[in-house]
Amino acid sequence: MRLMNLRQMMSNDGPMSFDASRALFRVGSSSKVSELLMAIPMLKGDPVIGVAPSTGASPFQMKVSVQRINSALPNVTYYDDIAAAGIAQVTNGLATAVDFPVARIALQFAVPKLDEEAVARNTAADLAEWKMYAATFGILRQIDKDLIAGTGSASPQNIKGLDALIPAARKVVTSGSIETDVGLLIKNVFPNGVGVGEGIHAILGNASALRALQGTTSGQRGQSGYRIDRRSGAFVYHYMGIPFYRCEVANSGTSSAIYGVNFGGTGLNLVYTHGSPETFGLIADSEPINGTHALDNVTVHGGFTLVLWEDEGAFAVTNAPVGTL
User: Fold this and answer.
1) CATH 3.40.50 holds for 32-39+103-325
2) Do 103 and 304 meet the contact criterion of CB atoms below 8 Å apart?
3) I need a surface site. Which of 22, 42, 205, 272 has the fewest CB within 10 A?
């Protein structure tokens, strides 16, 4: 069973006409906005590292690993034909590899094989069609939540979210002003990029943080406002030109964390193992027919890990004043 292009399905940039003579399916029942999931760069790990279990009770693990230098880069040498013997040496060693375990996530459904083959395809009358997309969007909602709040706990492995990936040294308590707090995010996101350094690409927070920024003086100037975001293709709010992506960040009373991130090759990426970015890394696998019930059993699933390649690719301010919705 094949998943359609989910990004195209969710886009407003479709044809000007459609076949309205038959029922269409839309998931509905949504109170959340997954702007971060739409925007975050997705990289396919092909292949990823496999770790054999140490005992029969231990699960097989997939992971992505990165090595980092354990100290500052060395001083360099300018030289000529006389001083060539004095060129500085790179003696720094590598720090212990940082592992990002891949989490498997899935939902299953079953449909009678006869029904699946007899009804009109790609309509709400197709039991397999709407169950597949209900499963798909259920998984995407969970991934969106875990991109921030995932704990990374094992057995079974789940996604380690951004809040757990950012080191304690790169989290600061609010200054008391959300405008000043965002200034701290902008100042403190500086991964290496291609070697010369990169800055902030986006601000992440919940709907309360968005409203708080919109109410500030700088949030109402000409550089701030809603526009089409080139990264996600969605219509999102930009604070002083920087896109703000709503995501699952919990409020604590009238305060909440806000994050600054870089989405480049040394910043924050979502690594997936199957499917494609168009299907958000999900695939649908059909299992053999259940002889007792004549059912076609389908699993919608994928493997994911959120990777912060360099710690400098993200920064957090905790307890920023956001009020309540």
Assistant:
1) no
2) yes
3) 22
